[in-house]
Amino acid sequence: MDKPKSARAYNKKACNYCSSLKRKCVVGLSRQSCERCANLRKKCDFTRIDRKRGPKPKRTITSQIPAEPKITSITPQLLDEFLNKDQKLSGKCTNC
């Protein structure tokens, strides 16, 4: 069974304008512009890049290694601040 040919060509992706409106993009046989862009005299571009779908790839241990030296350099500073904070608090009279 052959399908009857229609005056419309099938396109997988909508043009940028139809895609921004989230509307069906109907391209004529000339394939120069879709019906909506032709009626509104807009430039019909098919340059939109689709974003990848699905979950983001998991981070590996190797991608976390550069952060380790930074953490070890901050640890002594935090320890000093914590000890100085305790000394400042112990110098004040809590019963006065």
UniProtKB/TrEMBL annotation:
Top-level taxon: Eukaryota
Domain Zn(2)-C6 fungal-type: start-end pairs: 14-44
MF terms in GO: DNA-binding transcription factor activity, RNA polymerase II-specific; zinc ion binding
InterPro entries (alphabetical): Zn2-C6_fun-type_DNA-bd_sf, Zn2Cys6_DnaBD
PROSITE patterns per the UniProt record, alphabetical: ZN2_CY6_FUNGAL_1
SUPFAM superfamilies per UniProt: Zn2/Cys6 DNA-binding domain
Protein name (database record): 3758_t:CDS:1
Organism lineage: Eukaryota, Fungi, Fungi incertae sedis, Mucoromycota, Glomeromycotina
